[in-house]
Amino acid sequence: MKELEYSYVTNIEGITFIIVAPSIHNLLKDMKDIVSCSAVEKTLSDLIEKNNIHPELCNICGGLIVADFIPEVNEELFSNQLCYSCNFWMKKVGQDYLIIDNHLYKDGGRFVGEIHPDKLNLCGFGGRKFVIEKDNGEVIKTNNLWHIGRVPKRFEGLFKNNAKFL
User: Which among 132, 142, 129, 140 is positioned nearest to 100, based on CA atoms?
Assistant: First the structure.
């Protein structure tokens, strides 16, 4: 388990708790009870259990693993011991994305070499036209480009820029 410092902020009955600890285990050892906590969550251990927080920290970033998603996603987070963000980005590694200046994009479909004319209101970026050149020289014209997100610094080494806007 990583011994990274993290903080956890929670608000219970109008009282804000900011907890900083090197690990969830040390946190549980050091804080047996939370004073003025709700009747339902009398200990930090209860707070963690009731809020579906994994007892270990994320293997990549050291953050809390909070599982408040559908059961399949919760199981995936717990079994991989990854927080939602790290799990999201790890699933993108090796997939077919356009990577421009450390931002992931996906072309949502078009007629080959042509701008997709219909359903503009359902297109990425509202149907705005883009011309993109991939590293292999292929030029893509699309009006259905979707921004997946900026690659977090901790994952930049796993994603190589492979295209540029023209």
Answer: 132
